[in-house]
Amino acid sequence: MAYSVFLDTNVFLDHLLDRDTHSSNLLRSCEEGQTHGYASSASFYTLAYVIRKNVSAAETRKLLGDYLRFISILPTQKNALRISLDGSFTDLEDTFQYFTALEEERLDFFITNNLKDYQRVSQQLPVISPRKFIIDFLRLK
């Protein structure tokens, strides 16, 4: 069974900055088709900003283009933004990400390395770490 997962921005950043091998393994599973990966368009704005600080514009375009080969992009709808503004999250960007993910019915998990900011969410969409997903669901180490 191929799981469908929403990847928080920090999963990409942890991969790019070599901060977490589980994030890298998760992205590899998406690239290889074992997992269907989704992200918000807002994640790509943030990634472009962060990546561009360290590499050329051409390299930034290449890195983002590589992700777009195997990651599906979800738009953030006005309703998700409105609900987010009324939510109980401390970090508004996290709220936007979560409610963007909730609009996609096919998702099995919301994956983030920032679990503490998602403790208050209803478990309509389970929030787990890349490590837990890799070990418990893909059965990799």
Describe the structure.
With 141 residues, the protein is an alpha/beta fold. It has one domain (3-137): 5'-nuclease (Rossmann fold, 3-Layer(aba) Sandwich). The chain is 50% helix and 14% strand. It has helices at 9-16, 21-31, 41-52, 57-68, 78-85, 92-102, 130-137, and strands spanning 3-7, 35-40, 71-74, 109-111, 127-128. The chain has a five-stranded parallel beta sheet with strand order 3-2-1-4-5. The chain is globular. The two termini are 18 Å apart. The mean pLDDT is 91.
Largest sheet: 5 strands, parallel
Total of helices: 7
Domains (count): 1
Stated plainly, the CATH topology is called Rossmann fold
The first-level CATH class is given as Alpha Beta
- The portion of residues assigned to helices is 40-55%
Secondary-structure element string: EHHEHHEHHEEH
- Sheet/helix structural class: alpha/beta
pLDDT averaged residue by residue: 91
Number of strands: 5
The first-to-last residue Cα distance is 18 Å
Can you tell me the overall shape? globular
> Uncertain regions: pLDDT < 50 for 5+ in a row?
none
Placed side by side, the strands forming the largest sheet appear as 3-2-1-4-5
Calculate Rg over CA atoms. 14 Å
The CATH superfamily label reads 5'-nuclease
The CATH architecture is 3-Layer(aba) Sandwich
**Strand portion:** 5-15%
Task: State the gist of this model.
The chain has 141 residues and is of the alpha/beta class. It is 50% helix and 14% strand.
Task: Give the tags.
141 residues; alpha/beta; Rossmann fold; five-stranded parallel β-sheet; globular
Strands, helices and their partners?
Elements: E1 3-7, H1 9-16, H2 21-31, E2 35-40, H3 41-52, H4 57-68, E3 71-74, H5 78-85, H6 92-102, E4 109-111, E5 127-128, H7 130-137
Parallel strand pairs: 1-2, 1-4, 2-3, 4-5
Helix pairs in contact: 1-2, 1-3, 2-7, 3-4, 5-6
